[in-house]
Structure formats: C-alpha cells, structure tokens
Amino acid sequence: MRTLLMSIIAVLSVAVAPAHAIADQNRPWFPSLMSFEHYDSGRTHLFEQARFGGSFGRRNQVEVRTAPVLYPTGYNMVYLNPREVFLYGGGYGNIDDATGAFVAKVDPDTLEPIWYRPLIDTQQNGEWNYPGVLSILNDGNLYVIFGYRLAKLDRDGNLIKQVELPTGEGLPEDTSYNGFDALPDGTLIAKTVYRPQGCPVQGPPALFQCGLLGYPTPPPSIMISIDPRTLEVIDHVTLPAPVGGRPTTARFHGKDYVYLVSPQTAFRYEIKKGHFTTHDNPDPSWQPGNIYTSGQSLGSAVVIMNDWFVVQTNGSSVQSNLQPTQAPLSVIAISQAAGPDGVPTRQFSAQPFANLPVPSYIAQACGGCTSWAPMSVSVDPTHNLIYTADSAPGAIAALELTSKGLRTVWTVLQRTTEFLTLIGPRSRRVLVGTEIPPGQVPLGNDSDFVVWRDAQTGDELARTQALPAMTSGTMIQPYYFGKMFYMGLDPGNLIELTVEPAPATRR
Predict the structure, then answer these.
(1) Are 203 and 157 in contact (CB under 8 A)?
(2) Residues 380, 430 contacting (CB under 8 angstroms)
(3) Angle ∠(127,131,135) on CA atoms, nearest 5
(4) pLDDT one-digit tens code per residue, 25-68
(5) Are 492 and 74 in contact (CB under 8 A)?
(6) Cα separations (Å) of 393 from 188, 353, 405?
(7) Tally of domains in the chain
(8) Which is nearest to 318 in space by CA: 443, 387, 234, 221?
(9) Which CATH number characterizes residue 297's domain?
(10) Phi and psi at residue 95, in whole multiples of 5°?
C-alpha cells in the first residue's frame, strides 16, 4: 500500500506542470521526464520532474531489481511516459557482446524487451563501434545516431528512415558522430570523431590507444545541421581541430549558437535557419582566447547555465595530447556576452581539487597524471551551482557562480567516471552518481556503488551495494516514481534502483 501511495504521489507531482508548459521550456524535446540524454539542449543534467524517494532526515535503503535479460553496453534511456521506455546500447565495440547499435522498448514491469531492433552489426562489417545517442523530439519519434548513420523510428520500432551522413576527411569505417543536440526549431546538430586510418582498436579506447600505437592524428572534426523531418543535411562546417566533446546548443539574445572546445580554446558558431553563418572560422564576435593553463588537456562537452558557458578541463587524451595531465582540473565559466573586440565580458576559473593528492595506485595506472575528468559538469541554473568531478584524486565538488567568481561550496571524496545526475524540485535537489570502490582503477573497475547526496550540502543520503561496473561515459538514468536505472557495461545488466526510508529500528 505504501509503495502504491508513493507511486500515486510521484505521478501527481510530475503532472503539476502542464505538458505544454514543459514543452515550451524545453523545445524541441518531447515533454517527458527524460527525452534527451542530458535533459535539455544546454546539457544541464537537471531533471526537475524526477523525485528522490527517500528521506532527508533518516536512514534510507535501496531496493535493487535486475532485468532477466541483458542489454549489451546500454548507453542511455528515454521515455514518452512511464509506460513507454526506450533503451539505446551496443555502441562499445571494445566489449565482446556489443555488436553495434540497437534500440529496445523496455517493459517497466518486467524489464524485458517489448521489442528489440538491431540497427547494425559492426562485428560483421568491421566499422568502428563508438557510442552515439537516442533521443525523442516533440514529434514523438525516436532519433538515434550511430557511426555515420542517423535513423528515425516510431514508438513501435518501425524504421521510418535511415541515412548515411558525411564523413569529412575520415574514412566511413573510422567515423562516428558522438551524439547530437538540437535547436528549438528541431534542427539537429552533430559532429564527428575519428579513429585513425588503419587502427584496429574498437570502442572509446581508440581515441587514445591508436595514438599510443603510432597511428597519426585524425583529421579535424566536421559539424553538420540536419532537418529532422527529412534527415537531410542542411549545412556543414570543418572545425578548427579534432573535437572530443559533444556539441551543445543555446539560444542567447535571440540567436542560436552551438558551443564547443578544442585543445586550445572555446568557440561557437551561430546558426540561422539551419545554416552556419561562418564556415572558414568560428563566430568572430566571441573569442575567449586560450582557456587552458599549462599541462591541462582537452575539456569535455560544454554545459550552458543561464547566460554562461561552463566547461571543465582534463577531459580526455586525444592523439594530439598523449601526455598524462600534469595540471589540476579547472572549472571555467565564460559569459556568452562579449564586447566589441569579441572578448567575453566576464570569465572565471577555479581549481577545486588542486590540493587533493592522487593515490599511488591511480597515478601508476594513468602514467603519473594529477587529474582526469572524462565527464562534463552538471549545473543547477536556479541556484547558480556547478557540480564537478575528477577521477584521479577521486572527488566531487559543488561550486557557486557569484558576481566575483567561483566559490567552492562543498567537496567530498567519491571517485567516478560518469556524469552526475541532478534530480528533484528546486527546494530539494539530489545529486546522484557512481563511486568506484577503493583500490579499483577507473575503466578497470569491476564494480560501482551508486550514491545519492543532498545537492546543497554534499551529505550522503543513500548508497547501494556493490553493483557490476557501469557503462562508462554515461550516467544513472532518472525515471518516474522515485526510481532510477543503472546500466552495467559487461555483460549488460539493466538494474532498477528504488530508494525508500528504512524501517524504524525498534529499541
């Protein structure tokens, strides 16, 4: 009865905001709790419709339910509503069971597939298998990008259309579009990453192992705009360098922009009616200059918080930067507004983990690195809070963006390689992330915990038992009724997590 009551309350709390209001706030995504991997086009990772089912004032417990079937290397999940749940996976070619992209509709009662649609078999065709993404636009259709292909499916898994996308200077079999974003009118924005020609390494490890094996630096990424109705490419541009992080779009002062970072700087392109306004160079009206300090490596995907561009450094080792990162991570906030010379009006930077040591076993595994942060930040625009993590010292922190700069609110030890998920209403935010057990090395770990924290204080609210290692580079997926989904990397477990207050202990 109690569980049923909680479910009814959760449904009512989700339904408080009318669907049309949610759609207006988050165009062009479908108005559900989660229709895009990071909720909105600014990639905030803030899911206000999701709820924490536990207590803020007493001990909690976590119920774990594992699906009876496997979903190899599940990457992300999206929903039309609580009954229509979709999962994308198969995009980690370095795992034996990952044969290429698939989409499945999952029965939320049994966690078994209602339908399962393979889209490609990369073990047969030899192409580079790297994770793309699945999303739902406000037309209610499923859009999935994988390799150099884009497909549109209906809610029953029927293929509406599939197209091949341009590959720039890379060979098709070495090209992947690592996700996409979208403008308010639905125009899709996607960009490439490349595996060097001739390199046999599969999955995400190709981004750094191919360079270590002596293969050349890949060509610059290309970025394209796509009409979601026809899947036709509207325009394309060659970026100034290879870019790892996924594109992030924002509307600022009535103009649409896409933001990215290269190994040297941050930059943006303006888009009008699906066309990039400049092709030879990024937008000249916004020129932040070199955003890195000596020894730092490429930042990951950009996040938009109100009028600010936010990114953290030391995101990855690409072929042009193979040395271990020897400088602490920086969190960088840059105003989207700029003066007549193109220099942003305000720019702040902070190093919240600079004084934290790196355990010897971690330093040995990463070649003496002092920092490594493959995830992007998560943000709470209402409270001007930025959540950051660094896998080398093994910590997460909350920073407040003030008029004078970035202020550290709290820091806790918790080693993760995944994005941090923010759930809950503005008065009760909860931060959810994985934790690699002590003694285990990131990307070599065989298990993870899931930890819920009060987002305002960092205090721990709940924790799971050790679970099979999660698919790296993704996040705990929020769901309705206070539940969340966890996707194991190998062999591909789908695990439902439910937090509830623990029964009172009798004295």
Answers:
(1) no
(2) no
(3) 125
(4) 799 999 999 999 999 999 999 999 999 999 999 999 999 999 99
(5) yes
(6) 37, 7, 24
(7) 1
(8) 221
(9) 2.130.10.10
(10) -105, 130
pTM score: 0.93
How far is the C-alpha of 342 from the C-alpha of 56, rounded, in Å? Answer: 46
Domain with 266 in it: 2-501
Query: Cβ distance 447 to 469 under 8 Å?
Result: yes
Lookup: tokens for 407? 């202020």
Cβ 182 vs Cβ 29: under 8 Å: yes
What's the DSSP call for residue 314?
-
Q: What is the mean pLDDT of the chain?
A: 92
Rounded to whole angstroms, the Cα distance separating 140 from 150 reads: 16
* First-to-last C-alpha distance (Å) of the chain: 25
262 inside domain: yes
d(CA 325, CA 137): 38
Residues in the chain, total: 507
Asked if residue 506 is part of any domain, the answer here is: no
Q: Are 302 and 268 in contact (CB under 8 A)?
A: no
Strand arrangement of the beta sheet that strand 175-182 belongs to? 175-182, 188-194, 222-226, 233-238
